[in-house]
């Protein structure tokens, strides 16, 4: 340690950032794009992936014949998956559970969260149908034990049971549970679990590629002016704005 | 929630009715009942338990057995096999019931059924059973078993191959098992199967891990397969799109690297592994729960990996997760252990840990419901309290930390007690004069109690903690400890083989602060000094000798009486040994620490200006000690060499002064 | 759950069970520099005009030779303007040529600063030529009768940062194995140059030297 001897203030220097953006013309851009080779088979796989994931069985079958692209799962299982998904979307949760168990009895035994959400959806459907007594019994018999096993399940259960406390559920704070979106959420969980059991990712690749494109463009916007794609459905290149 | 009597009655009558229908002779009725049962129990632990209690499992196994070979039996088999598998899944009582009902041989027999759906379900069901710890160990040494396993792995049906892999994961536990399977070509089969479906791949990765674990021979077989292509396909899988595959492949690679670090050498690979695990922390459910354990296992005892993990911000991530709400106990435990390993060696990690402000959280988790979490919290605290920088600031010596730890010393689980002791051992090395806080909290009382525990590990660790507590402690703290411990207990600890090294080190620390402190061990006719002398003369263990000679050296910093007591202890010939004194033996020893300890003892005995110094020098000369010292004038250990110089100089100066 | 795998003897992982950097698992290079040992002496704070010094006590608190690490406290007595002794905690880098070389590479010390300060120790001169190139990386100092270190104070133990003293700098330190004496020079571009620290091993008035130890788990 030491006594202070000299104290020098060293004012920080601010470095000025270069602010000018680079301009890339349409010609340069297209030339670069042409240099990127994308195999036809890869494009076809992307399309097939999309059709399979979204459950377009017939389109997938036709595309298979026309393009010679083999899907990486048995197309017949798509029908089973879609049926289970659809059952949840229509509010027939019991039916959906049976279908999942027929498809593969391991799924719900090894995925407590999905099982809980299906049971929760059943409870929601009972409440929607005004079957208060049945709903209460179901909550107690089937859902309460799950809540004991898992704190976050308990919180979700409490939120769901709260639906019973309101006369006008459309205006209550937990009313969102009765929305169609809740069914869709549960249905997509079913979809994802079945896909996972088939060694498949739960989201199609195409949308994430588009998201990546948007992100990459926004990153590039800060550094350059270039022919941008503004309309994703047409994918036309817009001329770069004059600087 | 209220439940109407009618509803309750309906609920209770339903299972009876269902069981009745299961026993029906009408196939259609039976099938319908099976389907109902299946859809009730899958995913539902409570339902499983209640049906197990009602004795439903033997009925279902009965249906399975009786449906083999009859027309339209397939559907019944599919349903009953699915039910049996579900009962065994995640519920020990279910696995037990299934095994007791004799489902095993039936299921194995049905595997050769021509119907694919039947085989699928049966294989799945068997796999569930093998995932239970209660499943019997599959004996690989029997030829027929080995053949059966290989035919399973050769199957075209992925559920069947997956079953084969599960059997290996469950039953391959010994080096012999590993060698038998490796010799039967199972490694290659598993590698081929890695190209299959997700379930199959994951089952194979677990089986591989079981086969490679701690077995360098099988690991080198694996690495040599196809010119290393097996290893590279494993390495590729750590980047697979399935999180669980990534985890299992990483775990397998970690197992390889821990046994043979040369296969996990490249910095790129190490970094990749770390980044993949960090990313997997985000996974919900089982994968995310297991990741922290994999991280801990990867970096345990490996400073290079700890450094890389630290540079990849692993600690920030782990601590960030630790602060999230509603953590399952398993994940909480894993996170604490991973943080513990990361902070085990590098001070930079510990610094970071303190700056992340999670100490309170970890301290709070000492009071967690789960003993595993408590133990993990202790291990984490143990490792972060290795920071002398923080110890020096008295960072941990406060009631908030100390109280719950002392509570844990009374825990019913020995492993929790030992873990808590290890933290306390570190915390009591306090340089900020705050040891009285520990005394006030009753910590010393507990340590003294544990120093007399029936459990030898607890005894040892309690004495070690007491040793650390009296390190540079003030006189009053030392007096409190000695009063609590009593002289007779201390003597018996000094004489107990496994504990004596620590007990002697404890005495050494007690004796550190001059004459007053030396007086402490001269109560009751010098019984303590006698005990030390006796142990030093008879000990075979090097560390006991070192601690003992330093303890005597510290005694020799006292007054004339003390010095004379030491003289008689170290010059007395050894019992049953050569006639030379223990002091000469130590000076002649190979261990430099021991030599230096002995020399310090001589320095203290010949310390200038004592009225008895001359006579002690004479005695030492007569005993051949001075002569032996001179031989060490060029000791290869510099410390010994220079200390010898000091000692000899004191002797010379003394005779000059006369 | 992955389990901890017992280390196989055929492989090269280190066998230290707990991995603790404990105070005493390795023999200290010198017993006089082991944990618990005390030193006393003075720090000369003189500018050219007048000789001014304060009394200094040092105690070693931690030692981890594997990592070339040493730490302890430094107490300064009769400090101008301070009504109590000022205690700081410092961490030391032992120049073992593995963990640390003679080149500081931080704390605003250039290689020239390093050489200039090390050269103030007579015991350094035989090493100078080898050090110039790479900080002495190829030197084997394990049997050298002097131990070179850098002590960097980390925080004030008993006073606030407004105590009028700075710990922005660090000490170049040389410990003599033969007599346990310590010489040091404080370096801080913003402080008076070459403040000399002179310490001697002390037994604090005892009739001999005593040694204590602790063991971190």
TrEMBL record, chain A:
Highest taxon above the source species: Eukaryota
Entry-linked SMART domains: CRA, CTLH, LisH
Protein's organism: Stephania japonica
Residue stretches making up the CTLH domain: 77-134
Pfam families, alphabetized: CTLH, LisH
Name recorded for this polypeptide: CTLH domain-containing protein
InterPro entries: CRA_dom (IPR013144), CTLH/CRA (IPR024964), CTLH_C (IPR006595), LisH (IPR006594), Ubq-SigPath_Reg (IPR050618)
UniProtKB/TrEMBL annotation, chain B:
Lineage: Eukaryota, Viridiplantae, Streptophyta, Embryophyta, Tracheophyta
Location(s), subcellular: Cytoplasm; Nucleus
Keywords from the named record: Cytoplasm, Nucleus, Repeat
GO biological process: proteasome-mediated ubiquitin-dependent protein catabolic process
Gene Ontology CC annotations of this record: cytoplasm; GID complex; nucleus
UniProt-listed Pfam families: Arm
ARM repeats: 400-442
Protein name (record): Armadillo repeat-containing protein 8
Primary location class: cytoplasm
Keyword Signal: no
InterPro entries registered for this protein in UniProt: ARM-like, ARM-type_fold, Armadillo, ARMC8/Vid28
UniProtKB/TrEMBL annotation, chain C:
Pfam families per the UniProt record, alphabetical: Vac_ImportDeg (PF09783)
One GO BP annotation of this record: proteasome-mediated ubiquitin-dependent protein catabolic process
Disordered: region residues: 1-23
InterPro entries: GID4/10-like
A GO cellular component entry from the record: vacuole
Compositionally biased spans, kind Low complexity: 8-18
Membrane-crossing residue ranges in chain numbering: none
Annotated family: Belongs to the GID4/VID24 family.
Protein name stated in the entry: Glucose-induced degradation protein 4 homolog
Species of origin: Stephania japonica
């Amino acid at each position: 340690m030491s006594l202070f001897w000299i104290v020098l203030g060293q004012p920080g220097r601010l470095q000025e950032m270069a602010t000018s953006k680079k301009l890339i013309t349409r010609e340069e851009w297209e030339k670069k794009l042409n240099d990127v080779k994308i195999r036809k088979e890869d494009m076809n796989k992307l399309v097939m992936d999309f059709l399979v994931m979204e459950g377009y069985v017939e389109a997938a079958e036709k595309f298979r014949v026309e393009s010679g692209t083999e899907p990486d799962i048995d197309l017949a299982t798509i029908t089973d998956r879609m049926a289970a998904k659809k059952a949840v979307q229509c509010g027939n949760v019991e039916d959906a559970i049976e279908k999942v168990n027929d498809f593969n009895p391991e799924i719900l035994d090894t995925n407590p969260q999905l099982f809980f959400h299906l049971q929760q959806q059943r409870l929601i459907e009972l409440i929607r149908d005004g079957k208060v007594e049945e709903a209460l019994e179901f909550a107690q018999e089937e859902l309460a034990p799950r809540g004991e096993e898992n704190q976050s399940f308990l919180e979700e259960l409490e939120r769901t049971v709260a639906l019973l406390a309101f006369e006008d559920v459309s205006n209550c704070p937990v009313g969102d549970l009765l929305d169609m979106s809740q069914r869709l959420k549960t249905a997509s969980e079913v979809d994802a679990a079945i896909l996972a059991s088939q060694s498949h990712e739960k989201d199609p690749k195409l949308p994430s590629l588009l998201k990546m494109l948007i992100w990459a463009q926004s990153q590039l916007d800060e550094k350059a002016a270039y022919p941008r794609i503004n309309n994703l459905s047409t994918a036309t290149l817009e001329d770069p704005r004059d600087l | 929630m209220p439940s109407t009597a009618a509803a309750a009655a309906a609920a209770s009558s339903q299972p009876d009715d269902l069981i009745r229908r299961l026993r029906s002779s009408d196939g259609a009725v039976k099938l319908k009942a099976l389907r109902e049962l299946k859809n009730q129990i899958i995913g539902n632990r409570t339902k499983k338990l209640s049906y197990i209690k009602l004795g439903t499992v033997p009925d279902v196994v009965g249906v399975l057995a009786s449906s083999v070979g009859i027309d339209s039996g397939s559907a019944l088999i599919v349903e009953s096999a699915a039910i049996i598998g579900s009962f065994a899944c995640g519920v020990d009582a279910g696995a037990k019931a299934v095994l007791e009902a004799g489902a095993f041989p039936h299921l194995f027999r049905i595997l050769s059924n021509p119907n694919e759906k039947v085989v699928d379900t049966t294989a799945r069901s068997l796999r569930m059973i093998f995932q239970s710890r209660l499943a019997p160990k599959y004996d690989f040494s029997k030829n027929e078993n080995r053949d059966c396993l290989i035919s399973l792995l050769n199957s075209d049906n992925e559920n069947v191959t997956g079953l084969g892999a599960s059997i290996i994961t469950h039953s391959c536990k010994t080096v012999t098992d590993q060698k038998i399977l490796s010799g039967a070509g199972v490694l290659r089969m598993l590698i081929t199967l890695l190209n299959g479906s997700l379930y199959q791949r994951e089952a194979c990765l677990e089986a591989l891990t079981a086969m490679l674990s701690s077995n360098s021979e099988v690991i080198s077989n694996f690495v040599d397969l196809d010119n290393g292509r097996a290893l590279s396909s494993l390495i590729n899988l750590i980047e697979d799109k399935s999180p669980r595959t990534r985890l299992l492949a990483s775990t397998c690679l970690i197992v390889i690297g821990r046994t043979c670090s040369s296969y996990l050498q490249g910095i790129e690979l190490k970094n990749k592994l770390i980044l993949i695990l960090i990313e997997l922390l985000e996974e919900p459910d089982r994968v995310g729960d297991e990741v922290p354990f994999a991280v801990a296992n990867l970096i345990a005892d490996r400073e290079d990996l700890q450094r890389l993990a630290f540079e990849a911000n692993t600690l920030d991530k782990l601590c960030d997760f630790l602060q999230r709400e509603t953590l399952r106990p398993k994940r909480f435990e894993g996170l604490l252990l991973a943080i513990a390993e990361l902070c085990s060696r590098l001070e930079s990690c510990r610094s970071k840990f303190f700056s992340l402000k999670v100490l309170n959280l970890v301290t709070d988790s000492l009071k967690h419901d789960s003993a595993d979490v408590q133990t993990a919290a202790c291990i984490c605290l143990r490792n972060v309290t290795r920071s002398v920088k923080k110890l020096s600031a008295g960072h941990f010596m406060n009631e908030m930390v100390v109280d719950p730890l002392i509570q844990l010393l009374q825990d019913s689980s020995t492993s929790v007690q030992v873990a808590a002791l290890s933290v306390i051992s570190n915390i009591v090395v306090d340089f900020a004069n705050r040891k009285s806080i520990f005394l006030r909290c009753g910590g010393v009382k507990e340590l003294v109690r544990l120093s007399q525990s029936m459990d030898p590990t607890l005894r040892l660790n309690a004495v070690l903690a007491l040793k650390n507590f009296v390190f540079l402690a003030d006189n009053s703290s030392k007096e409190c400890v000695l009063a609590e411990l009593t002289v007779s207990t201390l003597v018996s600890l000094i004489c107990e083989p496994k504990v004596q090294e620590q007990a002697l080190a404890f005495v050494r620390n007690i004796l550190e602060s001059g004459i007053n402190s030396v007086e402490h061990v001269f109560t009751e006719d010098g019984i303590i000094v006698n005990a030390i002398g006796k142990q030093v003369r008879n000990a075979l263990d090097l560390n006991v000798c070192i601690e003992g000679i330093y303890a005597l050296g510290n005694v020799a910093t006292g007054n004339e009486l003390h010095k004379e007591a030491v003289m008689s202890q170290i010059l007395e010939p050894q019992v049953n040994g050569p006639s030379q004194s223990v002091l000469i033996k130590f000076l002649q020893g190979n261990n430099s620490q021991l030599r230096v300890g002995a020399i310090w003892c001589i320095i203290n005995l010949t310390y200038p200006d004592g009225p008895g110094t001359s006579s002690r020098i004479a005695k030492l000369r007569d005993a051949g000690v001075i002569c032996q010292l001179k031989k060490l004038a060029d000791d290869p250990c510099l410390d010994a060499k220079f200390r010898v110089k000091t000692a000899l100089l004191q002797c010379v100066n003394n005779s000059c002064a006369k | 759950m992955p389990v901890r795998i017992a280390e196989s003897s055929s492989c090269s992982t280190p066998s230290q069970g707990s991995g603790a950097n404990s105070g005493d698992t390795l023999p200290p290079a010198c017993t006089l520099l082991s944990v618990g040992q005390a030193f006393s002496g003075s720090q000369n704070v003189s500018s050219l005009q007048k000789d001014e010094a304060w009394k200094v006590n040092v105690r070693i608190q931690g030692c981890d030779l594997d990592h070339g690490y040493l730490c302890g406290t430094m107490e300064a007595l009769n400090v101008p303007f301070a009504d109590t002794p000022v205690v700081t905690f410092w961490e030391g880098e032992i120049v073992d040529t593995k963990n640390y070389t003679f080149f500081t590479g931080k704390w605003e010390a250039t290689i020239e600063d390093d050489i200039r300060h090390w050269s103030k120790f007579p015991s350094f001169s035989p090493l100078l030529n080898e050090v110039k190139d790479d900080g002495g990386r190829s030197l084997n100092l394990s049997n050298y009768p002097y131990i070179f270190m850098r002590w960097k104070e980390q925080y004030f133990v008993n006073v606030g940062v407004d105590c009028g003293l700075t710990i922005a700098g660090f000490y170049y330190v040389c410990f003599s194995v033969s007599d346990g004496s310590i010489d040091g020079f404080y370096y801080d571009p913003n402080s008076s140059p070459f403040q000399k620290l002179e310490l001697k091993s002390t037994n604090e008035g005892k009739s001999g030297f005593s040694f204590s130890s602790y063991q971190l788990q």
